[in-house]
Design a protein that fits this description.
By secondary structure, the chain is an alpha/beta fold. It has 14 helices and twelve strands. Strands 2-1-3-12-11-4-5-10-8-9 form a ten-stranded mixed β-sheet, sandwiched between helices. Helix 7 crosses helix 8 and helix 11 packs antiparallel against helix 12. The protein binds 3-isopropylmalic acid and manganese (II) ion (MN).
Length: 352
């Protein structure tokens, strides 16, 4: 099969972790007889430096014309500490999500048996956790009206949803629940927010189309608590953009490291695959960042974008093996030897 993949390394540790994913993908392609055609493009601070904007049209063209996009990370501290900056790397990510219509962000949370002691949570609580968040990604407070009033002394951001936006993400949630354990949790704050009441009303109206799915409605604050208390009680969760952003960082603690969690963003055009972690600028260029979240995002890409499940499984298997044998970066090494980012990538490629 011919696979045209857009490669967006981005900022910080992005380029380093992407390099390892490329090694793994190229090895998989060789083994399973595929031809990957990589096309690199600029995003984030790297793109601002080169051409003055974080998601240039040229990058969008590359993405739209690709079969899938593999993305590293975005963000640079130079902008974080400057609230007055007019152009920010994150705007590139948001623009990309919007222009590619990536409304559904799939963020699985699972545990690895060999890492169960790495989580700060009690082993008996997290064992066997296997849940997936469907985070709405192109609307809500991230894209609502925002601004300043009162000579800059008052600021506002608005959370807006249309029924249609809720329906399309909820449909993905119901379908995913049908393919798993038929349990769906709608996370909202319907006791306070009007937009949440629209979510709840819309999802309730869709229940009759999926009679086998057992739907629960829970407030986001309660979910934040139960997620670390009884993660096993959840399977598929759907939620709006900001709640999903916060809860998925929290959920990554269950697996033991944020450096392990992949994601897929799907929607109207090309799908995009990226680790859920950020650009981790303190580690940039040091060859110490964990590449596994990006490697596992590549596995999701083989499966979701190309339907190549054996290839995806081969990647997951070699990742499991590396964890089992302790070929891991410093975030997971504990008192044992820590491998470099590039060494983990080489090891994975060699052991596929
Ligand atoms: C994520 C990130 C982004 C988000 C940032 C970098 C804009 O935190 O993908 O979760 O908030 O969506
Ligand atoms: Mn986030």
């Amino acid at each position: 099969m011919k696979l045209n993949i857009a490669l967006l390394p981005g900022d910080g540790i992005g380029p380093e972790v992407i390099d390892q994913a490329v090694k793994v993908c190229d090895t998989i392609a060789e083994k399973y007889n595929h031809q990957i055609n990589w096309t690199s493009a600029l995003t984030g601070a790297a793109a601002i430096d080169a051409v003055g904007e974080p998601y240039p049209d040229k990058t969008h063209d590359v993405c739209v014309n690709a079969d899938a996009v593999l993305f590293g990370a975005i963000g640079h501290p130079r902008f974080d500490n400057d609230p007055s900056a007019k152009v920010r790397p994150e705007q590139g990510l948001l623009k990309m999500r919007q222009k590619l219509g990536l409304f559904a962000n799939v963020r699985p949370t699972f545990t690895f048996p060999s890492l169960i002691d790495k989580s700060p949570l009690k082993q008996e609580r997290i064992e066997g956790t296997d849940l997936v968040f469907l985070r709405e990604l192109t609307s809500g407070i991230y894209f609502g009206k925002r601004g300043r009033e009162d000579n800059g002394n008052t600021a506002y951001d608005t959370c807006t949803y249309t029924r249609e936006e809720v329906q399309r993400i909820a449909k993905k949630g119901f379908e995913m629940a049908m393919s798993r354990s038929k349990k769906l949790c709608c996370v909202d704050k319907a006791n306070v927010l009007e937009s949440s009441r629209l979510w709840r009303e819309t999802v309730q109206a869709m229940e009759k189309d999926y009679p086998e799915v057992e739907v629960s409605y829970e407030f986001v604050d309660a979910v934040a608590m139960r997620l670390v208390q009884w993660p096993n009680s959840y399977d598929v969760l759907i939620t709006e953009n900001l709640f999903g952003d916060i809860l998925t960082d929290e959920a990554s603690v269950i697996s033991g490291s944020m450096g392990l969690m992949p994601s897929a963003s799907i929607g109207e055009k090309t799908s995009l695959f990226e680790p859920i972690h950020g650009s981790y600028p303190q580690a940039a260029g040091k060859d110490i960042a964990n590449p596994l979240a990006t490697v596992l995002s590549a596995a999701m890409m083989f499966e979701t974008a190309f339907g190549l499940t054996d290839e995806a499984q081969a990647i997951r298997n070699v990742v499991d093996k590396s964890l089992h044998e302790g070929v891991v970066t410093e975030d997971l090494a504990g008192n044992s030897k820590a491998y470099k980012t590039s060494e983990v990538g080489d090891w994975l490629a060699k052991n596929i």
